[in-house]
Amino acid sequence: MEKLWFPPLQEEDPLITEKIKYSIAFLFSLTLVGLALHFNTLEEIWYGSLKILISPANLVTDYFKLANVGAAFINAALMIIKSLFIIRSTKVALSGPLFAAIFTIAGFSLFGKNLFNSIPIIVGVLLYAKLTRTPFKNYLLSALYGTALGPLVSEVAFNSGFSFSTGIFLGCTAGVIVGLILPPLSRHFASFHKGFSLYNIGFTAGIIGMAFIAFFRAYGIEVDTVYLVSHGYNQPLSIYLYSLFILLFSGGIYLNGGSFSGYSNFLNEDGRGGPDFMERHGLGLTLLNMALLGVLTTTFVLIVRGELNGPVIGGVFTVVGFGAFGKHVKNVFPILLGVLLVGWLTSTELSSTSFLLTALFGTTLAPVSGHYGVIAGILAGSLHMVIVTNISYLHAGMNLYNNGFSGGFTAAIIVPLLEVVFFHKNNRKNKGLIKPIINTEPVEDLEKTKNSPE
Asked: pLDDT tens digit string along 315-338?
């Protein structure tokens, strides 16, 4: 492909270092600060930030509506900086999975995560590392993604009828307990969906949230559902998002030597298990991929006339982040199409925030379409759309990664069926046994049984 006009820069140049990756993440947080100051004064941001910290935050609580837009973006910026500090302190490379975590945390900091409700969970994971005498860096992803259960901390602290000090203590205790049990459970539950749902911590967090809510309900404590969303910010926020993605795209092209070289190989990744795209394909192509995903998802929201509020932008940021960790336009699009198809057939309001969250976060199933093809991806998206509406009751909004929870069940249902179809199809084609990802019927044993005397 013909080179673009600017001087090419090859992947081996010293410019592509850990320092550059940190700089990109830090600059992302600075753009959020600038955006916050565009919407609100410092005084408004201060009081809005206090309200975010001391309010319940279960799904769906849009911080744009609860406080104000500026406070929400400042909260996201602070959460990014906190995450970068934690990553830096462990002295690990800023990998694709960690890049995805940063964007995911930024997104969910617009509707559920904050400094107060996230820190106890991270402390719990740190305590688990100390108790097991293993390095904290081994559980870094659990610590960062595990903040999905932040609303549980806020709910216990501020909405359970305790005094302020007692609530704070019990909320923090609940968060530490969550952090303690999260690492071993997340490692175990990864086998449930065989890596076909990228939000593995979301599934684990759903199980933990379900257990806590069952305990609450057993003692007569009911957690009210919340649906607090804002509207009316499409013009300024779409300008910001497209500008951000143009910057990511331009930086990606520049770092990739001024071309799209290698992106066709990038699109051949199925995404199963969350491959580190930065390690496999380099920073340049990864940034390019993230930008394209951002354009795709933002355009999808605007086409169905949705609102760019806190939760929806959180969904966009999450998809963009996972452009470094398993997603690309080829494996994401069929999932969006499947969700859209069922939404249209069931007369769902396609512009609603709940539908858009299902579509955006439903792309956790991107590996299904990447591995089994477009039709399988459409089927997975369709099934996910049906399942997700019945899942949130189980954890009462305590798990922000509700679609990760639902996606785990969807993958567990559809993947074995797809595996059987593809296994027998390939078996007939090759006239021999092909080892499946998931064990199907023991064909050899069945044949022996048929031929054996009774």
From this structure: 999 999 999 999 999 999 999 999
